[in-house]
């Protein structure tokens, strides 16, 4: 089943969720690279792909938002008592997933590093743009905030599965 239904999320929604979860996890490893100053396998193997994966995530989140909007009426129901929290929580997750690559791109271009994605140069190196670099300076703060939001998302999925026992996690697993 490609489309979402009242019983479970469709294959497209599940693909976006889990593919982006893996890619975001990959990206978050950069935080630990920063903590340990890149002197380990993460800094050597995964970090060189950070910018390219970030741009891929930006494309995926834009398409995912479009898909979400088209499937909104088909989604499994939300507990009415918690609807505001669910909407705010998911809204903040989506906002964070948009702002992360946008601020990352702002940092790269603003600092004059240029932008090369999967080996293709999209923006040449330059002298930089100070105001754009300032916006890019928000990137690490948004990363830590997004990490907290993701942790909360995971905790709530387990609460639904093991405490409420409402099958929410099963709907996303297929």
Automatic annotation (TrEMBL):
<comment type="similarity">
    <text>Belongs to the cytochrome b561 family.</text>
</comment>
<dbReference type="InterPro" id="IPR011577">
    <property type="entry name" value="Cyt_b561_bac/Ni-Hgenase"/>
</dbReference>
<dbReference type="Pfam" id="PF01292">
    <property type="entry name" value="Ni_hydr_CYTB"/>
</dbReference>
<keyword id="KW-1133">Transmembrane helix</keyword>
<keyword id="KW-0813">Transport</keyword>
<keyword id="KW-1003">Cell membrane</keyword>
<feature type="transmembrane region" description="Helical">
    <location>
        <begin position="49"/>
        <end position="70"/>
    </location>
</feature>
<keyword id="KW-0249">Electron transport</keyword>
<protein>
    <submittedName>
        <fullName>Cytochrome b</fullName>
    </submittedName>
</protein>
<dbReference type="InterPro" id="IPR052168">
    <property type="entry name" value="Cytochrome_b561_oxidase"/>
</dbReference>
<dbReference type="InterPro" id="IPR016174">
    <property type="entry name" value="Di-haem_cyt_TM"/>
</dbReference>
<keyword id="KW-0479">Metal-binding</keyword>
<keyword id="KW-0812">Transmembrane</keyword>
<keyword id="KW-0349">Heme</keyword>
<keyword id="KW-0472">Membrane</keyword>
<feature type="transmembrane region" description="Helical">
    <location>
        <begin position="12"/>
        <end position="29"/>
    </location>
</feature>
<feature type="transmembrane region" description="Helical">
    <location>
        <begin position="141"/>
        <end position="163"/>
    </location>
</feature>
<feature type="domain" description="Cytochrome b561 bacterial/Ni-hydrogenase">
    <location>
        <begin position="9"/>
        <end position="174"/>
    </location>
</feature>
<keyword id="KW-0408">Iron</keyword>
<feature type="transmembrane region" description="Helical">
    <location>
        <begin position="91"/>
        <end position="110"/>
    </location>
</feature>
């Amino acid at each position: 089943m490609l489309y979402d239904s009242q019983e479970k999320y469709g294959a497209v929604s599940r693909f976006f969720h889990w593919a982006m979860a893996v890619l975001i996890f990959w990206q978050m490893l950069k935080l630990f690279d920063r903590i340990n100053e890149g002197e380990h396998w993460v800094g050597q193997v995964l970090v060189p792909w950070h910018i390219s994966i970030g741009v891929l995530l930006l494309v995926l989140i834009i398409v995912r938002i479009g898909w979400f909007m088209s499937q909104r009426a088909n989604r499994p129901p939300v507990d009415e008592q918690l609807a505001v929290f669910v909407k705010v929580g998911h809204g903040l997750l989506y906002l964070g997933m948009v702002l992360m690559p946008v601020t990352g791109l702002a940092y790269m271009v603003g600092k004059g590093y240029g932008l090369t994605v999967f080996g293709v140069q999209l923006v040449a190196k330059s002298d930089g743009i100070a105001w754009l670099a300032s916006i890019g300076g928000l990137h690490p703060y948004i990363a830590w905030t997004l990490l907290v939001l993701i942790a909360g998302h995971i905790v709530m999925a387990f609460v639904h599965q093991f405490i409420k026992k409402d099958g929410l996690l099963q709907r996303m697993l297929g």
